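Lecture 7 notes: from sequence to structure.

We start with a single chain of 580 residues. Read the sequence below before looking at the structure.
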Amino acid sequence: MSKQLDAARMPKQLQSNMNWKENIVYEIYVRSFNDSNGDGIGDLRGILEKLDYIESLGITAVWLSPIFDSPNRDYGYDVRDYRAIHPEYGTMDDFDELLAALHERGIRLIMEIVPNHTSSDHPWFKEALEGRDNPYRDYYIWRSGSEDGSPPNNWSSFLGDSVWTPDEGSGEYYFHTYASHQPDLNWDNPQVRREMADAIDFWLKRRVDGFRVDTANVLSKDTSFPDTEDTRRIQGSGEQYYKNGPHIHEYLRELHERTFGRYPVFTLGESSQVEPEDVEKYTLPERHELDLVLMIEASKICDRSEDMWQSKPWELRHLKDIMRKWLKDLHPDAWIGMYLSNHDHVRMVSYLGDDLEHREESAKMLAVFLMTLRGTPNLLQGEELGMTNAHFFNSIEDIKEQQALAYYKQQVEERGEDPEVILRRVLEKNRDHSRTPMQWTDEPGAGFTTGSPWQRINPNKSEINAREQENDPDSVLNLYRRMIRLRREHPALSLGTYEPVLEEHEHIYAYLREYESERWLIVLNFSKTPTEAELPDDLRKLLPGAECAICSDEDGAAKLTEGAAKLDAYAYYAFRLSGQ
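Now the structure, written as tokens:
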């Protein structure tokens, strides 16, 4: 598509009769998806090469991880220019061609915007460092140190160090929720809000179909910056003072008015530390803020609150409690995006399933789970293949993501902790597990690249790859395709009510979905051992004659219709009870 393409010829944002809530979003971590030029880094033309595959999944929207120009210390989450594409990923022509090609196939393109912070290499921050009188100084957050010269308060960043870094030139400190090279923007400055709205509008005018808004509830801070009493917490100890902050709703409504509300698009807000009442404020339609909030809690089920790198045991009842809160107790007009894994978390089959003895069975069970929950599902590239954590990581040199490296340095080099203990934590939970290259084939480069990949490829590509699964009708990939098609054909699986069943069962997860005249029963065995399931009498009356649209085995389905069965490890059943 030519650089001279005028607005009249640009493809419009996709519109259809489909309720936007019924979207099924496929996250592409661009760097690891497909490399078209052999430099070892995924790119936009690599996505173009895989459009037939993407379309075959049946998804309705593609979410691209940040592709803006960046020094890549945090792989795009440190933005240097909001209106330019990083050369590693391609050109604006490549972007326009990809957008048009997706639209031709009826697929939306969702970009990711990082509005809370920029790179320290951004021209705004470079100007801000020139002195207190520079007009860009107030684009960021500055404070004088305490009387003893220490930082202005005791908050820790999400990398575990102070949220304050000194500026030797002025003697002041600048604020950063994340790394020191990612200074937070000062959203209390109206000019910052205008700049961000203009950057977003730049892409909306190019006809993108929406945004995933990174750290959407972090933009407004308590600028009195009081000390926190939560001093045991290693990462993000001050977040009670900047998540869901004093002006957050005002700023999001203003942003909506200037940008999102002027186009037929939808927005996904990444927002942690939220309760249902917060999500209602962010997403109720009449409030004109965000369309949905991404539900993060399930992906953090095994994190210790004082240290995200330490794990705690979890039981199925914990997951049920989380889902009940977000799927049943939430206001019916508020909305969430569902994901069990993304680029910031380990692979879902490796923490909710069993990626060693029952990888395929548990990956399929989780496919049925994700695709039958209320909300808008977000599927990370490779989950449709049952890709696993990178168990081949064995040293700190294998790790690239900044939070893991910062934790190791802090704990081992600065605090003198046992390096073996810290390494085990980092190897278990680092974000690189979900960022290893997509496994297209069993070839040396996994079909991802002909060059040297930016991140090591999982050796299990020989058993887990798209080419092999294409030819297997019973593969994880083809089950995802069936589940996505089923979800799109039956609004009850997207929009229907959620009613848990067998809430006290320690291994079986069951629930009803109902919408208009249609009703579904989902029964899942979250255990690696065969487990007895006995349904209540009211459901027994509904099951005879019910259609098992998706089931792991016919015998178990037949016995369940009689009311009781011993279910195989990671068995799954989706019964259509009415409206057949």
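The two ends are 46 Å apart (CA to CA). Keep this in mind for problem set 3.
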